[in-house]
């Protein structure tokens, strides 16, 4: 037999190094750290932490510590002593109204509320100085969540401007000028005493399916002056655009008849005039169509005022309630889920007791033949009694037969001995 080969030098060194690097960890001299879920959620003592900076203070809260969902507040100061506040930023979580951030400028009084997607009115940003209607405010919306494609609405005491996107009628801009109320009441609102509309300006995007000379770019309804101004889109090979102005006069002729349409009631400038646009019938039909569109625009402006009132009322209710959303998996805070779980456990416990009683109830197989929940009649009770007695007698007979059969099986037959 040959001698066994010696291990290679580098392998032996590698084995020694592995042995040297391995060591046993000593047992810990401290107890196991245990943190309860409640303490883990608070994140800091009493769920609040304050960090002081130069001309600023940052406050942090754990979720659900504040009833309004406030989790963070950053206050900026003007002086080093932190006595004059410049602005305050507040962050919220778990709000049902989807409020995420509030920026308050203490100098100008401007408040900017930012919302996450999911608000009932598709509100994204609300900038205001007062929650009273007909004040300076700006509302921005999630246009994909709205049917009308409204992106932004700016409102002052005398004007309202709306911006749209993705509408089938290519409307992109509407500006409404309001006049002073003729009838003054104690409580003026768009619902009880709406502001009179003086002027409506609408702008449209280019519709590629129409010629540029027939595609309206801007439409102005001058209601007090009874004039309608149209400006069309400019063609690519032109430097000027066509314009047209209609005068809605309600005069009468010498015979007392109402003047419907005259050549001087339509003033137009056309880059390339055509014969059909000069006819009174074409101009009359265009003016009648514009009158209907003017009524529709005034109605939409009134609806916008009502929507602003509805949003302001909803925001006041949301701020008063400041309800928070609770996950269905949070069994500690979700009272509805807790009540539902307890009710289900109670029902399951009652069902278990009912099953246990049914197993011990000898009448259960017979009662199952009858309609559940109904009171037994005398005839049904007598019949149930007879069936129970008959079944009991049959069970006694079967038991006696079984005993007799086993006894005969054990006893030896005739002529057979018991054995030595």
Describe this structure as you would to a colleague:
With 420 residues, the chain is of the alpha+beta class. Among the domains are: 188 residues, no CATH class; 65 residues, no CATH class. It contains six helices and 16 strands. Strands 1-2-3-4-5-6-7-8-9-10-11-12-13-14-15-16 form a 16-stranded antiparallel beta sheet, covered by helices on one side. Strand 9 and strand 10 form a beta hairpin. The longest helix is centred in the last third of the chain and has 42 residues. It starts with 8 loop residues before the first helix and ends in a 10-residue tail after the last helix.
Order of helices and strands: HHEEEEEEEEEEEEEEEEHHHH
User: How much β-strand is present in the residues?
Assistant: 15-25%
Structural class: alpha+beta
Residue-averaged pLDDT, rounded? Answer: 85
Provide a count of the helices: 6
Largest sheet: 16 strands, antiparallel
For the record, give the distance between the C-alpha atoms at the N and C termini, rounded to a whole number: 75 Å
Strand order of the largest sheet: 1-2-3-4-5-6-7-8-9-10-11-12-13-14-15-16
Unreliable parts: none
Descriptors:
420 residues; alpha+beta; 16-stranded antiparallel sheet
Fold topology:
Blueprint: H1 9-21, H2 37-42, E1 48-53, E2 56-61, E3 70-77, E4 85-92, E5 99-105, E6 111-115, E7 123-128, E8 137-141, E9 150-155, E10 159-164, E11 171-178, E12 197-204, E13 216-222, E14 227-232, E15 243-247, E16 266-269, H3 280-321, H4 335-360, H5 364-367, H6 378-410
Antiparallel strand pairs: 1-2, 2-3, 3-4, 4-5, 5-6, 6-7, 7-8, 8-9, 9-10, 10-11, 11-12, 12-13, 13-14, 14-15, 15-16
């Amino acid at each position: 037999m040959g001698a066994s080969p010696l291990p290679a030098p580098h392998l032996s060194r590698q084995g020694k190094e592995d042995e040297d690097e391995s060591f046993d960890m000593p047992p810990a001299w401290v107890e196991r750290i245990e943190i309860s879920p409640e303490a883990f959620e608070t994140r800091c003592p009493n769920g609040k932490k304050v960090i002081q900076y130069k001309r600023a203070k940052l406050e942090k809260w754990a979720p659900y510590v504040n009833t309004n969902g406030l989790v963070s507040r950053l206050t900026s100061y003007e002086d080093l002593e932190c006595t004059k506040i410049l602005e305050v930023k507040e962050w919220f979580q778990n709000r049902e109204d989807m409020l995420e951030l509030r920026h308050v400028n203490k100098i100008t009084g401007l408040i900017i509320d930012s919302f996450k997607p999911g608000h009932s009115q598709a509100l994204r940003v609300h900038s205001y100085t007062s929650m009273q209607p007909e004040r300076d405010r700006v509302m921005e919306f999630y246009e994909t969540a709205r049917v009308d494609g409204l992106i932004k609405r700016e409102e002052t005491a005398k004007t309202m401007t709306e911006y749209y996107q993705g509408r089938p009628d290519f409307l992109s801009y509407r500006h409404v000028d309001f006049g002073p109320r003729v009838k003054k009441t104690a409580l003026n609102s768009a619902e009880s005493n709406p502001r009179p509309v003086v002027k409506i300006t609408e702008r449209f995007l280019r519709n590629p399916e129409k010629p540029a000379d027939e595609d309206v770019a801007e439409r102005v309804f001058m209601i007090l002056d009874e004039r309608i101004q149209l400006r069309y889109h400019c063609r690519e090979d032109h430097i000027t655009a066509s314009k047209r102005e209609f005068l809605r006069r309600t005069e009468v002729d010498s015979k007392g008849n109402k003047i419907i349409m005259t050549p001087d009631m339509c003033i137009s400038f056309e880059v390339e005039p055509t014969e059909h646009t000069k006819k009174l019938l074409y101009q009359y039909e265009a003016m009648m169509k514009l009158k209907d569109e003017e009524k529709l625009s005034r109605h939409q402006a009134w609806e916008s005022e009502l929507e602003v009132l509805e949003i302001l009322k909803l925001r006041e209710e949301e701020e008063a309630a400041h309800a928070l959303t609770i996950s269905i998996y949070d069994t500690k805070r979700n009272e509805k889920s807790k009540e539902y779980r307890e009710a289900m456990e109670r029902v399951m416990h009652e069902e278990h007791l009912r099953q246990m009683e049914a197993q011990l109830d000898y009448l259960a197989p017979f009662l199952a033949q009858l309609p559940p929940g109904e009171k037994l009649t005398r005839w049904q009770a007598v019949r149930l009694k007879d069936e129970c007695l008959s079944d009991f007698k049959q069970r006694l007979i079967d038991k006696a037969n079984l005993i007799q059969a086993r006894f005969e099986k054990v006893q030896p037959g005739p002529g057979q001995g018991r054995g030595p």
